[in-house]
Amino acid sequence: MSNDVADQMLEIEDLVHHYGAVTALSHVSLSARKGEFLTILGSSGSGKTTMLRVISGLEMPTSVRRLRIDGQDVAHLPAAKRNCTTVFQSYALFPHMSVIENVAYGLRIRKVHAADALKEARRALAMVQLEAKADRRIGQLSGGERQRVALARAVVTQPSILLLDEPLGALDERLRQDMQIELMELQRSLGMTFVYITHSQEEALTMSDRVVLMSQGQIVQSGSPLDLFDRPKSRFAAGFMGYENILEAKLIGREEAIGTVEFPGGVRIRGVITSTGLRSGDTIAIAIRAERISPASASLSDNSETIAAKVTNRVYRGKYTDVTVATGAGPLRMRSWHGGASENSEVERVGWSVSDAVIFAA
Predict the structure, then answer these.
(1) Are 323 and 336 contacting, i.e. CB atoms less than 8 angstroms apart?
(2) How much is the pTM?
(3) pLDDT of residue 297
(4) Rounded to an integer, what distance in angstroms lies between the CA atom of residue 325 and that of residue 310?
């Protein structure tokens, strides 16, 4: 076995899963390293939850070439025989048990001695800062505290992989942000492999070592949070990761990774090519984030582009104002943080760094 394979906690190769005539997963391959925080990101129906259920053993795949957890072939093993635990959005706690009884439950059914189970449960509760509420009933806890109990119950059995199925979805925004930090710290302190399912790009970007973006049962792109945020490789990935400006043009030239595109009116701009196989003459899409665009002078530098613009709309959104401008490339939205130059003033040109524009197949 190579060192790369030995470092893998999860290995999935050529996974297919059908629900009747519907293909939920189509020839998907995925891996997670030991101690990695891997996030599977996608909208409803993308296949991400089906992937988690297949890993956990709650679903038996239609077909799979390889499915291993910590080197063990688990493709045909039931959920109880796999060394992984799932944390659900609903928490799935027992209301008739105390907090510590809930956490110790997994150890008790594994025939761990009662005193040892309670000792390990208290240690797990200390990890999530709930040791003082060990004797409370579940109904006496807040939503965030219940989530911590669910986490403690999941990690107390020391699984090889912790699977998390949108565990923060039921929390309010402030608590959700706090729990993101706590989850990151817990994962790092345990050194455990986390596989996290979410539809929230914010959660994926904040917590993950690596993000896998899924759509229609397939992996669209995989990489670091920065890769997906700044270097999407398709129109779908750019739209999902929050690019407000995606315009069609024609690729008229390239110099290594930098491409030059031309719009129907003759305007030309440059950007970074992220798709493979693009050639001059291809119809492409170019994407730029609103916050990367700002008012600019008419002068051009080697590393920036500017274009004539006229303000057509302003929308106040609390922390910032979205400003729409008409340009020769089409309408562009830029984001003005309060006090910025474009908030109330007229704009004659807008600009951005060449590296902030990405080019991919249309």
Answers:
(1) yes
(2) 0.90
(3) 65
(4) 5
